[in-house]
Amino acid sequence: MNVTALLFASYADALGRPAVELSLPDGSTVEDALGRLRGMPGGGTLPASPLVAVNLAYAKPGAVLAHGDELALIPPVAGG
Amino acid sequence: MRTAIVTRPLDGAALAAEVARPEHGAVLVFVGTVRDMNEGRAVTGIEYQAYEAMAGRELDAIALEASREFGTSAIAVEHRTGRLAVGEASVVIALSHAHRGAAYDASRYIIEQLKRRVPVWKREEYVDGAREWVDPAGRAAEVSR
Questions:
Q1: What dotted CATH number matches A2-74?
Q2: For every one of its 145 residues, what pLDDT tens digit does chain B have, with 9 covering 90 and above?
């Protein structure tokens, strides 16, 4: 299955791009996707357990992904 | 209730007019602006970035919570993104209520939740030309190159 991972702010700088298309085995979790991202150039600087959202809602590392999901890695927010 | 992520300059007076109601005796507008100093470093501007779809959803959720908790649906919130100069408004929270106490409480609730939950980031630009993403926990999150 394919999942889009969105990167923002410092995380986008770390991997040098704002989005990554991931091809993952069925049944993969958020944590599996994070592992894949950590293995990419620049991915080693991602924190151990970044905040993540799946399809616009905050999600846990164990959440199971589905084909077409939009995964977003959320750096520490700093709005206002 | 209305919330938005926008790129144009914010207009607090327009939002105040938008939320005014004949039955409400208090109209409150909070304007967050770009400060010229952060942690001892002179700031020349801030670039705001948002995960727009999710930020809009979280802002809507926060406005709804405030509405239920404090008893007014006359709420308008706008957050600006893009590059802002010192003194420019990055966020405006306007609301009205029958009474001032609940108006202050609702406004405070919205800004505190916004800072905690809404996926917006800022990169400060300093006098020496350096730019860093801000980590509100204390330090800059990652030095950008």
A1: 3.10.20.30
A2: 999 999 999 999 999 999 999 999 999 999 999 999 998 999 999 999 999 999 999 999 999 999 999 999 999 999 999 999 999 999 999 999 999 999 999 999 999 999 999 999 999 999 999 999 998 875 444 333 3
Cα(B4)–Cα(A63) distance, integer angstroms: 29
Token reading at A57: 């809602």
ipTM confidence:
0.93
The reply to whether A45 touches chain B by the CB within 8 Å rule is: yes
Q: What residue in A sits closest to B51 (Cα-Cα)?
A: A8
Contact B144, B123 (CB under 8 A): yes
List the single best residue of B78, B80, B142 to mutate versus A (max A Cβ within 10 A): B142
Q: How many CB atoms lie within 10 A of CB A23?
A: 9
Give the domain CATH number at B26.
Answer: 3.90.1170.40
Q: Report the predicted TM-score, pTM, of the whole model to 2 decimal places.
A: 0.92
In sign, the C-alpha dihedral spanning A79, A49, B53, B1 is: negative
Say if residue A63's pLDDT is above 70: yes
Exposed e or buried b per residue across B24-34, where buried means at least 16 C-beta atoms within 10 angstroms of its C-beta? beebbbbebeb
| Residue B88: inside a domain | yes
The residue segments making up the domain with residue B30 are 2-41+51-120
Q: How far apart are CA A17 and CA A38, in angstroms?
A: 14
Nearest-angstrom CA–CA distance, B67 and B76: 11
All structural domains of chain A with their residue ranges: 2-74
